[in-house]
Specification:
18% of the residues lie in helices and 25% in strands. The structure holds 2-oxoglutaric acid (AKG).
Length: 273
């Protein structure tokens, strides 16, 4: 059966926009209370130290407890990822970025590398597929001009990646084709790493709090280290399937097909979708 019958989370407009721009925003996935609780739990797991700078990053937020593991296969977001990556996707790595006012920028990077890469985007016969793909959970607002995530919409299809001006990539020159999507707390930004993207200096008074979960197709990996199920004694069978190391052989589908054409996000593993 064609994989176009997957979860069906993307509307026609989402498909148009993701194919056009290389990212989409899923609005209001978390409530304000859920965002505040995740911030509280993050502060408990990783308290700010006196010597910390304005930009902070922690790799491995899924080790902070089940609230962070549960974002990995959230019922609202996972179907989007399955539709973009296929039902054998795997979680590759996770981390957070916290930025206080005036936290420094990180240069634009990514883009559709040509050889030996996981940064790719393809379309064929109604199906989109992406290599390394990110779900960024925004626990705080990123209003117009706040900074944080920025990208070059449409650059996942560029044929001139080496021509990307270095001064723009390093934020030494402004360019109106570098865009900061406006995000509200609770929104999830999904983008392909084939999109040129980076981090602009944070200008808002409040701290930027984002959690990033990165997914790979079943056969590939960006990270050097894989998830160890032993670190996740409470993980569900579906979360463990997502954490599987890369392989072509024997890579289990993540979501069960409940009926022809519909993927069931809630039930345990079933036959191949
Ligand atoms: O959200 C951001 O600030 C950018 C994240 C990033 O650069 C990446 O995911 O590679």
């Amino acid at each position: 059966m064609a994989e176009t019958a997957a979860a069906g989370a993307l509307t026609d407009e989402d498909k148009f926009l993701f194919d056009l721009r290389g990212f989409l925003v899923v609005k209001n996935v978390l409530s304000g209370d859920e965002c505040r609780e995740l911030i509280r739990l993050a502060d408990e797991a990783w308290p700010r130290q006196a010597e910390d700078g304005r930009y902070r990053r922690f790799d491995g937020i899924s080790t902070w407890g089940h609230a962070f593991v549960d974002l990995m296969d959230h019922d609202t977001v996972l179907p989007y990822l399955v539709e973009l990556m296929g039902n054998r996707l795997r979680i590759d790595h996770d981390y957070c970025i916290f930025m206080r006012k005036k936290a420094p920028a990180h240069a634009l990077h990514g883009g559709p590398w040509r050889y030996e890469t996981d940064h790719w985007y393809r379309y064929h016969d109604g199906v989109m597929r992406t290599g390394l793909t990110v779900a960024t959970w925004n626990l705080t607002d990123a209003g117009p001009g706040a900074g944080g995530f920025v990208c070059v919409p449409g650059s996942h299809k560029t044929n001139f990646l080496p021509n990307m001006p270095r001064d723009v990539a390093r934020f030494e020159r402004d360019a109106d084709w570098v865009v900061q999507p406006t995000l509200a707390a609770g929104d999830v930004l999904i983008f392909t790493e084939a999109l040129i993207h980076g981090t602009a200096r944070w200008t808002a008074d409040h701290e930027r709090r984002t959690l990033l979960y990165k997914y790979s197709p079943p056969h590939s990996t960006w990270a050097k280290k894989f998830y160890d199920p032993g670190d996740y004694p409470d993980a569900t069978p579906r979360q463990l399937r997502l954490m599987a190391p890369p392989s072509v052989e024997g890579h289990a589908p993540v979501m069960e097909r409940a009926s022809r054409g519909a993927l069931n996000t809630a039930s345990p593993a079933g036959p191949e979708a």
